[in-house]
Amino acid sequence: MKPYVGILLTSLLLFGCSATQKEAEQDLRDPSVELKQTSIRNSTAIDDDTCYKYQRSLLHENLQDDYDRLYGALLHHEASVLLDCSVPYVMTLFDAVTFDHPELFWSNYEYNYKESEDKKSVTLYPSYAYDKKESAALQKQVDAVASPLLQKAREKQGDYEKVKFLYDWIIDHTDYVNKEENNQNMLSVLLDQEAVCAGYSKSFKYLLDQLDIPNAVILVQVIENPDEYHVVNMVQMDKAWYYLDPTFGDIKIEKSYANYRYAYFGMTSEEMENIYTPQQEIKKQQL
Question: What is the reported pTM?
Answer without folding.
Answer: 0.86
